[in-house]
Design goal:
With about 170 residues, the chain is α/β, with parallel strands linked by helices. It has one domain: Alpha-Beta Barrel (TIM Barrel), CATH 3.20.20.450. Helices cover about 45% and strands about 15% of the residues. It has eight helices and six strands. It has a six-stranded parallel β-sheet. Helix 6 links the parallel strand 4 and strand 5. The chain is globular and about 45 Å long.
């Protein structure tokens, strides 16, 4: 299960306590929870954010830096071994240009090699075609998400799909 954390939530002094409480109440294995913070949120108060990520990491949850590659995030987050996943923003998948139709793949390739060298799992957002997925697999991306797999659904439809074991 993936949950995006807002800048406001990161600033809450009791964030880790709240997450721990929800984990206890639901019985969810912490390793099954991925908490995502966006690059923009991470850059707002780096020291406080790193402290919050340490608290959350101590609970056993997985952490992801979301929308990577579109902001001005300090690479210090990657250096602290707090993250488990690096999520490349969909904009990088859709940056084909007439003068360099595969230019986007060079950036994603470099980011993937960097992520792997730091023992991070690379997730690419915004995959819409089989061609994109094939190219990302070739580059070595670990996971992908996007309309190619499923369009956003209301919670009732997701519950139905899970009950039917459609995935």
């Amino acid at each position: 299960m993936c949950v995006n954390l807002s800048a406001e939530q990161i600033r809450q002094s009791d964030l880790a306590d709240n997450v721990a409480s929800v984990l206890r109440e639901t019985g969810l294995d912490p390793a099954c929870l991925m908490l995502e913070i966006s690059e923009r949120t991470a850059q707002e108060d780096a020291e406080q954010t790193i402290d919050k990520l340490r608290e959350l990491k101590s609970l056993g949850v997985k952490l992801a830096l979301d929308d990577f590659g579109t902001g001005y995030c300090s690479l210090v987050y990657l250096e602290h071994s707090l993250l488990d996943f690096l999520k490349i923003d969909r904009l990088l998948v859709h940056r084909k240009r007439e003068d360099n139709p595969e230019g986007y793949s060079k950036v994603i390739d470099a980011m993937t090699r960097m992520a792997h060298s730091l023992d991070l799992t690379m997730i690419v957002e915004g995959v819409e075609t089989e061609e994109q997925l094939a190219k990302l697999k070739e580059i070595g991306c670990d996971m992908a998400q996007g309309y190619y797999f499923a369009k956003p659904l209301p919670s009732e439809a997701i519950e139905s799909l899970l009950r039917e074991d459609a995935f």
